[in-house]
Amino acid sequence: MIIVKLKAFDELQSMLDPYQNILIVGCDGCSGIYEVGGLKQAEILKQQFELARRLKKAGKIRVKTVSIPRQCDVDIVANELRSEITEQEAILSLGCGVGVQTISDIYEDKHVLPGLDTMFIGMEDKNQGKFFERCKACGDCILAETGSICPITRCAKGLLNGPCGGQVKGKCEVYDYTRDCAWILIWMRLKKRNMLDLFTKFRPFRVNRLHSPKELEKTINVSKH
Amino acid sequence: MLTSGRIFSELMREINEGRFVLTGELEPEKTTDLTEVIEAAEALKRYVTACNVTDGPGSFAYMSSLIASHILQRETGLEMIYQLVCRDRNAIGLCADLLGAGALGIRNILALTGDHPSIGDHPDAKPVFDLDSAQLTHMIRKMVDEGIDLYGNPIHKPPKFHVGVAANPNADPFEPEVLKIGRKVKAGAEFIQTQVVFDIDVAKQFLKEVDRFNVPILMGIFPMKSYGVAKFFDKNIPGVPVPAELLEKLKKAKSLNKKVRKQKYNKINLELFIPFIKELRKTSAAGCHIMAVGYERLVPKLFEAVKM
Q1: Which residue of A has its CA nearest to B131?
Q2: pTM, 2 dp
């Protein structure tokens, strides 16, 4: 899941200040599922914007709301928004950064604005009531070797041959020993699975990382069926 | 692995001859003046085979360890162990500094991952960690043994280094630390200098676990010149608690008048470390790494007492 966060209302308001006619587009994907940027949030925002304009006596704002299944899908954005977008000056996207850019690439003449901050690829921990980052999309997955725990994401140094000397009783020196050391988690998991030979394995410098700076843009070919 | 037939440094020569080797530690700080560090090196010179030069310890932005290593080696004639961390330099920077170290006649490298910037005095500096200590070790061995860099590009006149790594006998949990040492040895580590140990039994247990890797171990000790130093160490060095009894003794000494206090501090340290080193000499340890930064005056006393 792409984990997102709604921008502060003040920031949204100043972003929309120049416009009288806007469309708020929710996304039923990652942001909608966790009720950060679905139709319901779009409608709440609409009411807040209208009220704020009235209180400021700054004239009327016309806000229309809609939500689509996935803002990151080019076909969905093109088909489902075509009839919604009319004379609006600006579109406020409640999708992730990919959603904003997908809409913007298709409706080039509209001002497409981000309503959310895109945080990371992560998952929910029900016990702690928090989202945690779990994948850096590094393009060279080694989870098979690390007990399905990602050191690129969860080790503060992103080490391939951890743990480092900064762990004490399984906690990391970064953030004052409040977070788990990823490599101690990996060791425990591999031990449990009777796979400690993988822990001992030396992992050389990776020369084929997708995030290598020589890749100006990450791309892969789409295979059409 | 112990590398027979290719000895580039005094440190490795003495280790290979089976002598019990002492190494010291020098810390260039936030200054352009190395006078005090040179004096410390001069004070240690008669007693140690080589000295480590720290590379921004605790992620503090101090003088470059490479440049300090060179100046110290030039000014004192004592061999240095250039500590190199992966925190601040990507693979290109590491390669560049290593080539420079080769040109300056540095012969020993201690390859370290390095602390995270967040614990130091530039907490928002970008953490690099392009490589880790095992990968750096591997890269250095490639440069030295095969004359190539990380990408296989040939090096004109490859450098001559011995590469060591760090280990922590106090690590908790301990098992992954041992496995990690095995991994670093696989990557090419030629010697190990350990984190501080206070308890000889901890040292012995550690040696028992890692002897199978057949790599010379220099056991780290930390004589403490005052209660303040001991307290700071206890609080700030991850995973190495100062024994409570020792802290208590030093605390009592603190209340004495100045002249007696100094003698008392010396006495406490000598009573702890003389038997420690004597006992250590009976083990498989290759030597002892004495981290007496600012307390060099104790080293001759230790040295005489254990009759090196």
Answers
A1: A205
A2: 0.91
